[in-house]
Amino acid sequence: MSASVLLARRGCRVLLCERGQRLGRKLSASGNGQGNVTNVHMGAEHYFSDDTDKVDRALRRFSWKDTVLFLEEMGGIFLPDARGRVYPAGRQASAVTDLLRAEISRLGVEVRTDAQVTQLTYRNGFVAVCGGQKFSADRVILAAGGMAAPNFGTDGSAFALAENFGHTVLPCKPVLVQLRCDPASVRGLKGIRVDANVCVRRKGQTVFEGRGDLLFTESGVSGDAVFRASSYAVKGDMLIVDFLPDVCEERLKEALTRNTGADKLLCIVNNGLGRALLKQAKDEKDLLRLLKRFPLEVTGTLGFGYAQATRGGIPLKETDEDLQSLKQQGLFFAGEILNVDGECGGYNLQWAFTSAHLAAEGALS
Ligand SMILES: Cc1cc2nc3c(=O)[nH]c(=O)nc-3n(C[C@H](O)[C@H](O)[C@H](O)COP(=O)(O)OP(=O)(O)OC[C@H]3O[C@@H](n4cnc5c(N)ncnc54)[C@H](O)[C@@H]3O)c2cc1C
Questions:
Q1: What's the distance, CA 64 to chain centroid?
Q2: 119-129 tens-digit pLDDT
Q3: What is the CATH number of domain 179-301?
Q4: Start and end residues for every CATH 2.40.30.10 domain found in the chain
Q5: 348 lines ligand 1 (CB under 6 A)
Q6: Ligand 1 in reach of 345 Cβ (< 6 A)
Q7: What dotted CATH number matches 2-173+310-364?
């Protein structure tokens, strides 16, 4: 959608094919419906890719400030929250989609919905087969997403279009997703939400540490801190949860000695959590451990159906600086279809905007 706006503004004739009934359905669902479009703490260190140096260069060419400018030029006000996450002031993701849709319409971009591109070939120009019709083009930007949230039209089937030109597709895994844990370890905790510090440990090493919301679910854990941890965690890793990151062990120990009985943890942790921990703890030392280092073994994730992003896809190394295919001149990539995924907090949409701008610039040259 962004690339088509940029190309149409520069006088190109653009055809935008969307498999679904409406443009930008995933964008409308982003950020819990509030549209976390980017983050002021931007940098390649927040991304995973086979070529993070290229991600770094791309983000320098089109930064989070450029995203805000691009959006505000179309309308609205975009503001960061205390953690740097940028949202539309009206906190409605669908309104961001509406801005883009309105601009697309104003610029006269030809939009086809219910239009899945099923074949893409090149012979003196590109030919795309879409709903039984053939369309020709000088340049193509493939921005068909990854495999996360297939209910929004992204089931990975578009990778075949790139494979047809000799591209590889790196194995995909869901990220920014709920983690599954041993059901016994979360029994009785379902529905409890806490502000916690979450640490991912593997073979005695910490591979991630972050603070935020943690929500216990039927099969594991969810919430902002867990989503961030899911970018790092793999099956077999341990999540170590500190339910009281602002309270040192000494102070906690002192409070536990002062208070007795079943009310021991009142006003220390959430009541439901307190009851469950008291039931589990063998003694006071063990209770302290559970409060500060609650262990959960990761047994998997809830899968692509529940994920916000995809790790894997078309290697970034198979593209040039403008994200043009190194296998087929005139073919560009943008967004999640590429092997770039960001942490939770606006990084994935920033990549979508950055890559769309690079691809559009490349397609224009
Ligand atoms: C619930 C949810 C919440 C999220 N929240 C945030 C957030 O707050 N901040 C953030 O930064 N990121 C968020 N993300 C991630 C972010 O939305 C995606 O990374 C981003 O939308 C990717 O943009 P894209 O243009 O590459 O692909 P998409 O937005 O996935 O769009 C790809 C489009 O291509 C269409 N398509 C697929 N195949 C074909 C085909 N063959 N022919 C025609 N059309 C096709 C699909 O129908 C789809 O509409 C969220 C994701 C989800 C699922």
A1: 16
A2: 999 999 999 99
A3: 2.40.30.10
A4: 179-301
A5: yes
A6: no
A7: 3.50.50.60
